[in-house]
User: Fold this.
Amino acid sequence: MIKQNKIWLKKNSFEKKFGSKFPPSYPNETVIKLCTSKRLSGISTNIFKKNFKVIEIGCFAGNNLRFFIENKIQCFGSEINKEMVKLCQDNLKRLKLKPPLVKIGVNEKINYNNNLFNMLVSINTIHYSFKHGLIKAVKEYSRVLKKGGIAIIETPNIDHTIVKNSKFIDDFHFKWGPSGFRKNSDMGFINNEKKFMKILKKFFKKVEINYKIENYKKFKMSNYVFVCQK
Assistant:
């Protein structure tokens, strides 16, 4: 497993060269759409039902948790070190929102009990586990979900500029190629779609695969969005 706690710190968690004073604070649009519309997915859930619980793995600055907090949904978080936990809490306080419980943990070791949550959200987080660690992460995601619980997992695919610029080592194992604090880090990008779907289906009874693509002049963001039901 990648030593995530030595990578993500407040100082490198968002771009400052353009004058940004605060980390990104708006929810992922795909998460909102999947949680509020039945048109996009055959695996849908009612997040507004009583006692619904959500956890986000890699909750960063609380930007996705913000959506659930503002809609009065009981939510929890997991981050890799104390500094990132504090970043999440401080940013939510800045937005005048009460931070939820955020525990220290990683993809392969989520420090919450079995069968606790109705939904798990993982946005651009699972690929920080690679090779066999990626399988452990999927198993761990399933472990903390209740029966019938849903996981929303977004991660880059091989058409993403970042992945194209990284070095392929083996299935679900790349070396981060672009410059920056992640350079030469081990990453678990999904290069074998069928193989990863088989892994998901070991731990979830229903699995959907969706694609999210944004093309810019110098950069392409091409992501998988897996929707899984335990």
